[in-house]
C-alpha cells in the first residue's frame, strides 16, 4: 500500500454514515458497535448501517477518542477554505473562518452568505449605514434608549 492509500482507507473507516464527515467524538454507538457522531446520533433511534437499536451509555476505548480528536480534518467550509488541522484547532478555526456562513444583522435584511463577502454586501446594500476608516464617538448613551449595534469588520 502507498501512504495515500492507507490514509484514504483510514479516512473511509472513520467516516460517519450520517454526516459523511470524519467521526467526531464523543460517539454514539449501536448494539453492533457501529458508530456515528454524537450530534448525528441524537436524532437516531436505529443505526443507519445495520438498523439495530442505538445503545445507551456504551463504553469504548478512550484511545479511539484521542485518535479522533487528533486526526486532521477539513474545515466545514472546505468548498473554499483549504484549512486542514486537528479537531480542537479546527473547532477554533471555524469560529473565525472567512468562509463561515453568516446572516446580515440589519433588521430588514435577509441576506446570508460567507463572512468574506459581508463587507461587499454592506457596501452595496447598506451604504448609508457604512462608516469606513472613520472614528465614531457615542455621546449621551443610555441603556433606556433603543438599542443600536456597531460591528467592526477588518
Automatic annotation (TrEMBL):
The keyword GTP-binding appears for this protein: no
UniProt domain RING-type: residue ranges: 16-51
GO cellular component, one term: cytoplasm
Highest rank taxon of the organism: Eukaryota
Alphabetized UniProt keyword annotations: Metal-binding, Zinc, Zinc-finger
Keyword rRNA-binding part of the UniProt annotation: no
Pfam family, any one: Sina_RING
Gene3D superfamilies in the record: Zinc/RING finger domain, C3HC4 (zinc finger)
Transmembrane segment boundaries: none
GO aspect biological process, one term: proteasome-mediated ubiquitin-dependent protein catabolic process
Gene Ontology molecular function, alphabetical: ubiquitin conjugating enzyme binding; ubiquitin protein ligase activity; zinc ion binding
Family annotation (InterPro entries): SINA-like_animal, Sina-like_RING, Znf_RING, Znf_RING/FYVE/PHD
PANTHER family with a match to the protein in the record: E3 UBIQUITIN-PROTEIN LIGASE SIAH2, E3 UBIQUITIN-PROTEIN LIGASE SINA-RELATED
Protein name as annotated: RING-type domain-containing protein
Amino acid at each position: 500500500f502507498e501512504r495515500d492509500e492507507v490514509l484514504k482507507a483510514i479516512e473511509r473507516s472513520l467516516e460517519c454514515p450520517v454526516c459523511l464527515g470524519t467521526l467526531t467524538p464523543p460517539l454514539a454507538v449501536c448494539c453492533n458497535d457501529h458508530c456515528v457522531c454524537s450530534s448525528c446520533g441524537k436524532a437516531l433511534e436505529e443505526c443507519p448501517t445495520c438498523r439495530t437499536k442505538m445503545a445507551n451509555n456504551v463504553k469504548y476505548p478512550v484511545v479511539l477518542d484521542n485518535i479522533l480528536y487528533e486526526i486532521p480534518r477539513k474545515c466545514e467550509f472546505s468548498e473554499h477554505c483549504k484549512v486542514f488541522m486537528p479537531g480542537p484547532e479546527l473547532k477554533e478555526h471555524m469560529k473565525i473562518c472567512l468562509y463561515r456562513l453568516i446572516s446580515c444583522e440589519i433588521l430588514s435584511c435577509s441576506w446570508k452568505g460567507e463572512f468574506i463577502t459581508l463587507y461587499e454586501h454592506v457596501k452595496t446594500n447598506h451604504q448609508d449605514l457604512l462608516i469606513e476608516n472613520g472614528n465614531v464617538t457615542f455621546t449621551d448613551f443610555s441603556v433606556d434608549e433603543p438599542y443600536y449595534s456597531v460591528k467592526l469588520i477588518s
